[in-house]
Task: inverse folding
C-alpha cells in the first residue's frame, strides 16, 4: 500500500520530526541535506526510485524569503500528459510533506502557484508522478526561518473570522484555451506551533487538509494539504473550461467543510 | 551592514536570518556595544525644553548594536521623568537610564511603550525597579502575548539573555485618549487604530507642542508595515489634524517639521497601496509584485531593499480580499 499523505505525516511527526528538527540547520552540508531527503523520500514513496528531472517539473521560490510565513512557490509542469500528481516537500519543516496535487482531466498543469511556510533553511522538493507510476524530482534551496511558529499578529478569533469564505478570479479567457484561475480561501491554517495570545498555550493545529476543484463534471485537481500551507491559502492554477460552473470543496482537519460554486469565464468572448 | 546583505558568518556566507514583525534581525557573535562604545556612538539631543532624544541607528538589529535602532528618550517634568521610548534591549534601556541619571535626580514615573516592536519595547526592563507607570495602547497586552516571547528569543539569539531582558507589560492601558500630568507639563496620549502595528500610541507634549507619533512617523528609514496599510493612511490624517508643527519620529532625525515628513511617508504608503492594488487587479501574483511595487520610492528611503518587498507582501494580503 502506498502511504497516504495523512499516514506519512503521522509517521513524520512521530519518527522524522524529533531527530530531524534538531539536526536541521542553516549550516548543514549538502551531504547532510541529501541524507535527510533520502530518509523523507523513503517514508513517503517507499523504495521507489526517484529520478531527477529538469523538464517535467521546475520549482521557483525566492532564494531568500521576505516573509517566512508566506513563501510563494511556483511549480511548472509543461507536459500535461506526463503528470499524474505532484508532491511538494519542504525537507526541514516540522511536517515536511506540505502538499500533494492529484490532477484530473480538466487540469492544465503548466503553472501552479501556492504559498507556504518555511521554518528553516531548507531544500524543497517537487516530486511528480507520471501516468506509468514513475517518479521524478526537482529541488530548490530556500533561506527562511520561523515561518511555522510566526504569530499571526491577531487573536485566534480574529484569524478565524470568515473561515471558509472563498473567492475565485479568472484571467482573461480565450476560446479553446486553458484559463488561469486564482482560488483564495479564508482559513488561518494554524500550524500548531503558534502561541495563543490569551491562554499562552499553542493554538491547536487547524489546517485545510483537502481541496477539490472541478470544472463541470471533471476534476481539475485534489490537493491534500498540511500545516506548511500559509494562512488564507491562495492557489493559482490552470484549467480547461467547458462553460459549466467551477466547484470548490474544502475541508480542514477539525471537521470544517465548505463548498462554493463560481461562474466559469465565458469561452466565447 | 550593507543595504543588500546580511553579515558574513563563519562559513563566509552572507546570511540574513529572518524577518519578523517588520524587523530584520541579523545574526552574529555576541559581543555587543560596551558602555564606552555606547558613549562614543550615541548622544542625547535636547530637542525641546527638558526633552532629550537619542537618534537610533539606521540599521537592522544585530549583535553589535544591541537593537539600538529607534529614537528613544525622556521628558523631564516638575514631578518626575517620563520615558518616551524605552529602547531596543535591556542594555539599550540601561544606557538610557544612565543618561537620565546624568541629567536629573527626579524619579522616573512613567515609561511609554509606543507599540509592540522589539526595538521600542525591550528597553522597558531597565526601568522595572523604578516602578513607573508603563503606558501602552489597550491592544498592546494581547500583541505582547502573541509576540513578546517570539521577539525575546530572537534577540537572545543575537546578543544573549542578559542583554535582552524581559517582556514588560503596560500597567496603564489607553483605549482612546489619556493625559498624564507631570506638574509643569501634560502629555496627551492617543491610541490609534491598526496602522504601523495594531498597538500604536502617540503623544503630545503641552509645553513644547511637540508631537511624538513614534513609528506612525518614519523619516529617512523605510517604514515597515505590520498593521494595516489603509489604516495607517487614515491615522496619518489624524496625525496631521493635531496641528503640531514639529515632531519626534520613531526613526530618523530626532526632530522634524511634521507636514513634509508626513507627506513623504504618505507618498510611500500611497505608492505601496495603489501599485499593489494595480498588481492584484492585473492578476500579478505576489511573488512578482514584490519586485515591482513602489520601485519609484527606492531612492527616497534607507534600507529600502530590506523592507519594501516585505511591505508589499503584507499589503498584498491586506488588499487581495478587498
Result:
Amino acid at each position: 500500500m502506498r502511504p497516504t499523505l495523512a499516514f506519512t505525516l503521522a509517521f513524520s511527526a512521530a519518527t522524522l520530526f524529533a531527530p530531524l528538527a534538531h539536526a536541521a540547520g542553516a549550516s548543514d552540508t549538502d551531504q547532510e541535506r541529501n541524507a535527510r531527503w533520502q530518509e523523507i523520500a523513503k517514508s513517503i514513496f517507499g523504495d521507489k526510485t526517484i529520478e531527477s528531472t529538469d523538464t517535467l517539473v521546475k520549482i521557483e521560490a525566492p532564494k531568500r524569503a521576505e516573509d517566512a510565513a508566506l513563501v510563494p512557490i511556483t511549480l511548472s509542469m509543461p507536459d500535461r500528459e506526463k503528470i499524474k500528481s505532484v508532491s511538494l516537500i519542504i525537507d526541514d519543516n516540522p511536517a515536511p510533506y506540505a502538499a500533494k496535487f492529484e490532477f484530473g482531466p480538466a487540469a492544465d498543469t503548466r503553472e501552479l502557484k501556492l504559498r507556504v511556510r518555511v521554518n528553516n533553511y531548507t531544500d524543497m522538493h517537487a516530486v511528480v508522478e507520471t501516468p506509468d507510476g514513475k517518479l521524478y524530482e526537482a529541488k530548490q534551496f530556500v533561506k527562511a526561518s520561523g515561518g511555522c511558529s510566526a504569530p499571526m499578529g491577531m487573536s485566534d478569533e480574529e484569524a478565524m473570522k470568515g473561515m471558509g469564505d472563498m473567492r475565485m478570479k479568472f484571467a482573461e479567457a480565450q476560446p479553446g484555451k486553458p484559463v488561469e484561475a486564482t482560488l483564495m480561501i479564508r482559513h488561518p491554517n494554524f500550524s500548531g506551533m503558534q502561541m495563543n495570545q490569551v491562554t499562552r498555550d499553542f493554538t491547536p493545529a487547524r489546517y485545510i487538509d483537502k481541496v477539490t476543484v472541478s470544472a463541470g463534471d471533471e476534476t481539475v485537481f485534489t490537493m491534500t494539504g498540511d500545516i506548511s500551507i500559509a494562512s488564507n491559502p491562495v492557489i493559482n492554477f490552470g484549467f480547461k473550461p467547458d462553460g459549466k460552473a467551477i466547484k470548490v470543496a474544502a475541508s480542514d482537519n477539525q471537521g470544517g467543510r465548505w463548498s462554493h460554486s463560481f461562474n466559469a469565464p465565458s469561452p466565447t468572448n | 551592514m550593507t543595504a543588500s546583505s546580511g553579515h558574513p558568518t563563519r562559513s563566509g556566507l552572507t546570511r540574513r536570518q529572518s524577518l519578523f514583525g517588520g524587523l530584520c534581525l541579523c545574526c552574529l557573535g555576541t559581543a555587543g556595544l560596551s558602555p564606552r562604545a555606547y558613549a562614543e556612538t550615541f548622544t542625547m539631543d535636547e530637542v525641546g525644553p527638558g526633552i532629550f532624544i537619542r537618534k537610533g541607528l539606521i540599521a537592522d538589529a544585530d549583535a553589535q548594536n544591541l537593537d539600538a535602532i529607534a529614537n528613544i528618550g525622556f521628558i523631564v517634568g516638575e514631578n518626575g521623568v517620563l520615558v518616551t521610548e524605552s529602547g531596543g534591549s535591556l542594555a539599550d534601556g540601561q544606557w538610557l537610564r544612565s543618561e537620565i541619571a546624568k541629567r536629573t535626580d527626579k524619579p522616573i514615573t512613567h515609561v511609554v511603550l509606543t507599540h509592540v516592536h522589539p526595538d521600542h519595547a525591550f528597553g522597558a526592563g531597565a526601568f522595572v525597579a523604578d516602578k513607573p507607570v508603563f503606558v501602552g495602547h489597550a491592544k498592546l497586552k494581547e500583541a505582547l502575548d502573541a509576540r513578546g516571547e517570539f521577539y525575546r528569543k530572537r534577540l537572545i539569539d543575537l546578543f544573549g539573555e542578559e542583554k535582552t531582558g524581559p517582556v514588560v507589560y503596560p500597567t496603564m492601558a489607553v483605549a482612546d485618549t489619556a493625559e498624564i500630568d507631570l506638574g509643569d507639563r501634560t502629555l496627551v496620549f492617543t491610541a490609534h487604530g491598526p496602522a504601523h502595528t495594531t498597538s500604536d500610541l502617540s503623544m503630545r507634549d503641552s509645553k513644547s507642542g511637540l508631537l511624538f507619533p513614534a513609528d506612525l512617523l518614519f523619516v529617512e528609514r523605510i517604514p515597515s508595515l505590520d498593521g494595516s496599510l489603509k489604516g495607517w493612511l487614515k491615522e496619518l490624517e489624524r496625525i496631521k489634524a493635531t496641528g503640531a508643527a514639529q515632531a519626534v519620529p520613531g526613526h530618523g532625525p530626532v526632530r522634524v517639521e511634521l507636514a513634509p515628513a508626513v507627506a513623504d511617508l504618505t507618498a510611500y504608503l500611497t505608492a505601496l497601496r495603489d501599485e499593489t492594488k494595480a498588481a492584484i487587479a492585473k492578476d500579478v501574483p505576489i511573488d512578482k509584485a514584490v519586485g515591482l511595487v513602489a520601485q519609484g520610492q527606492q531612492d527616497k528611503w534607507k534600507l529600502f531593499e530590506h523592507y519594501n518587498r516585505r511591505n508589499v507582501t503584507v499589503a498584498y494580503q491586506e488588499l487581495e480580499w478587498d
Observations:
- Residues 5-262 of chain A form a domain with the Immunoglobulin-like fold (CATH 2.60.40.2470).
- Chain A has a mean pLDDT of 86.
